[in-house]
Amino acid sequence: MKIRTKEDLQNYISDDLAWRKKELSNLYNDVKTANPKRLPTSLRCAVVILYAHWEGFIKNAAQIYLIYIKSRRLTLVEVNNNLLALSLKQKINEFNATNKATCHVKFVDFFLNNLGERANFSETDSIRTGSNLSSTILEEILATIGIEFTPYELKSNLIDGQLLHYRNTIAHGNYLPMDKTEYETLHSEVIRMLDSISIDITNATVLEYFRL
Q1: DSSP per-residue string spanning 96-134
Q2: Three-state secondary structure along 53-71?
Q3: How large is the C-alpha radius of gyration of the chain?
Q4: Which residues contact 78 (CB under 8 A, 6 or more apart)?
Q5: At what angle do helices 6-33 and 39-71 cross, to 10 degrees?
Q6: CA 131/CA 123 separation, integer angstroms
Q7: What are the Cα distances from residue 199, in Å, to 35, 61, 156, 165?
């Protein structure tokens, strides 16, 4: 996929979020209008899809952001510390995996003398959710791309104790006692977080936070 301009990235993220919000809006209306007999089924479906869009959008948006950054063809000395660490991840892992002084010297030599090389990383390998996008994994994803996690830290209980827990309960075939009001609140909070992450990544692109 080619994402070479700020407009390309903004359009992709906007379009990706739009269709997800439309589907979630339809499910939200299904829950609101469901009769008492159909409500439990509507709630279960809505929770699973709500989580799916939570995971899907964040994974896609983060990967697209990295694709855009790679298109800038920046060198290691030009990118911020998050992306420098990402680009050097394999060498850092090799450094940590050995006690050989020769390997340590090679790493230091590379770091001091090769920062003019192009920053390079795999967006697919760098952004992984493991099908369980908890607050901890969200923090790691945002750290990878250089987005501040603090605003979302306050939502950790909602992410882990409600959204992820409810989705896993349903996915494992267990009954989930939940009422309409609880789902409506969860739906609204997740939409707000998706909007916020969309804005964060768009702002980071426009303001070039990926640069040192």
Answers
A1: HT---HHHHHHHHHHHHH-TTSBP---HHHH---TT---
A2: HHHHHHHHHHHHHHHHHHH
A3: 20
A4: 119, 211, 212
A5: 180
A6: 17
A7: 37, 11, 19, 26
| 8-state DSSP, 5 | S
Task: Render pLDDT for 149-196 as a digit per residue (tens, 0 to 9).
Answer: 999 999 999 999 999 999 999 999 998 888 999 999 999 999 999 999
Tokens representing 17 are 């979020």
Q: Tokens 């279960």 identify what position? A: 44
Tokens of 100: 């050989």
Record the pTM: 0.90
Q: What are the structure tokens assigned to 209, written together?
A: 């936070």
- Distance between CA 35 and CA 38 in Å, rounded? 5
Question: How far is Cα 47 from Cα 15, in angstroms, rounded to an integer?
Answer: 22
Tell me the per-residue pLDDT of 103-115, one tens digit each, with 9 for 90 and over: 777 777 777 777 7
Residue position matching structure tokens 């339809």: 26
Contact between 127 and 59 under an 8 Å Cβ cutoff? The reply is yes
- Rounded distance, CA 63 to CA 70, Å? 11
118/125 Cα distance (integer angstroms): 18
Domain boundaries, the chain: 6-74+132-206
